[in-house]
Amino acid sequence: MQQKVAKPHRGRSILALTLVFGPALFLIFMATRGCDHRFKQLSDYGLVKTPTFSVYNHLGKQKKSLQDYQDQVVIINTIQITCPYQCGLAFFPLTQNIYKDLRTNKRKKLKQVRMLSIVVDSLGQPVSEAALLDVQDMLRSKVEGFDPELWQLINADPHDFFNITNNGQNLIVKDKKYFGGVSYNELILLIDKKNHLRMALNGHTEGMIRKMKEHLALLMKQYDKERAQKDK
Fold this sequence. Notes:
By secondary structure, this protein is of the alpha+beta class. The protein has a single domain, classed as Glutaredoxin, CATH 3.40.30.10. 34% of the residues lie in helices and 20% in strands. It has helices at 10-21, 25-34, 91-104, 129-142, 159-162, 206-231, and strands at residues 53-57, 60-64, 73-80, 113-120, 151-155, 165-166, 169-170, 187-191, 197-202. Strand 3, helix 3 (91-104) and strand 4 (113-120) form a beta-alpha-beta unit. The protein is globular.
């Protein structure tokens, strides 16, 4: 008599996903539901408001807010002063997948995309200007073609960016399973041209870095479609 093989319980699968992806799972799940089967459009999670912050770019130090980046797509994450070898994000996949695309396409389809990294210590706390400039020097030495206009460093409190609640869940979670004990050390946000959040993913693995790259491509395709409709 042939034995029946038990099928995996769906509830256990969902629980496993929750343990892997943590607080960003609700955004991943909702964004997947928000796309049709041809993946035409990402969901919109609303306006991200932040106070002014200090940006270090190709012009030096400047005071800015997210409103200064309207009409640009922005990728927001944190970067620790312990990088590139001890980081919340998968550092080298980040540079080889997302940043390399920005750099090689900066005069083409990705010319309106910027990456903003909030410089923090290993526990996710803001750092001094001197420590931030040390991180900028590290990027110049470790990242091929580092361009401070495309990859801008920020001196700010990460809570101002990641304190986002959806469906009763907040992106900021304190737990030992995250690098430095805080979830935002591992998160990447995708902000559209109207300063609206379109995706949040845990970028601690290369696979999720690639997933964010895919979502960025989806958002840019959406803008291409809107532009084509206006040109008709």
